[in-house]
Design a protein that fits this description.
Elements: E1 2-8, E2 11-17, E3 20-28, E4 34-35, H1 45-63, E5 67-72, E6 75-83, H2 87-99, H3 106-110, E7 118-123, H4 138-148, E8 157-162, H5 169-180, E9 186-189, H6 191-194, H7 203-214, E10 219-221, H8 226-246, E11 256-258
Parallel strand pairs: 3-7, 7-8, 8-9, 9-10, 10-11
Antiparallel strand pairs: 1-2, 1-6, 3-4, 5-6
């Protein structure tokens, strides 16, 4: 967690901010990118988080900006930043360390990535994605669940599945499968990779979104520039109208995340 210590008028209060990496991958992409083991030394997701934390600490030491003064509510205020392990995870790792058996090293390792509390991960456009006939990304989704539902990865990783809406009912069925059978907690869609940007508002895509909403699963869209973001905006409006008219109870569960939004300059 990112911990903020606020000192004002001789009083001190501490606020803890939960930090979630909302976009990471597992698998082997067709373009060569690979992440088959989040704990791989030097190349895994956990080490990446550690590098981010290390660079922030180094910058604090270089600039002296770990603490600074400002004005809040018209009063002189000192703000200081630090990293704090997530309490439940830290207590669990401490108990494992005391036992001195399997996973007893997690306490020591975790101090290097205490900044990032959890990370959302989902499939690449994997080279092995089409190994099962049930759905295009069945093998990829199984691969993600192997990590995100197994200790110690499950303490940090939140698994999302992936489908290609152009598969129609197969894609809808896969949403159910990744939630009920694989225990994944969200959905990743990539219109550009699957080639349906010009069919964004089709019934096939809307049906996938409705199925995700029925499980209260967030849906993250990968984007590439302004055009794709605007098309996704049209889709969201269309899907919202359909849900409002036909499944109004699902509307609070319709949750969409736009990835790479800043690239669209919107």
């Amino acid at each position: 967690m990112l911990t903020c210590t606020i000192e004002q008028d001789g009083q001190k209060r501490v606020e803890h901010l939960l930090v979630i990496d909302a976009h990471s991958h597992l698998g082997q992409d067709v373009d060569g990118a690979t992440m088959m083991n989040p704990l791989a030394p030097g190349a895994g997701t956990f080490d990446f988080w550690g590098n981010v934390q290390g660079r922030i600490k180094a910058d604090w030491e270089k600039t002296g900006e770990q603490s600074f003064t400002t004005t809040m509510d018209g009063k002189f205020t000192k703000i200081s930043w630090s990293f704090t392990p997530f309490p439940f995870t830290d207590r669990l790792y401490s108990e494992l360390e005391k036992l001195g058996k399997r996973h007893s090293d997690l306490k020591e390792k975790s101090k290097f990535y205490s900044f990032i509390d959890q990370g959302v991960c989902f499939p690449f456009q994997d080279v092995f994605r089409a190994k099962h006939p049930e759905a295009l990304y069945r093998a990829s989704n199984i691969n993600v669940s192997r990590f995100t539902t197994r200790f110690p990865f499950s303490m940090k990783l939140i698994g999302y599945g992936r489908v290609d809406p152009m598969e129609g009912q197969k894609a809808v069925n896969e949403v159910k499968y990744v939630r009920e059978e694989l225990g994944l907690r969200g959905l990743k869609l990539h219109p550009r990779s699957e080639g349906y940007i010009d069919k964004m508002t089709s019934e096939k895509v809307i049906n996938v979104l409705i199925e995700a909403a029925s499980y209260s699963m967030p849906v993250i869209f990968d984007t590439r520039g302004r055009g794709s973001i605007l098309e996704i905006g049209k889709l969201i409006r269309s899907a919202r109208n359909v849900i409002q008219s036909n499944y109004p109870d699902l509307l609070p569960h319709f949750k969409v995340i736009i990835a790479h939004f800043a690239q669209g300059n919107i």
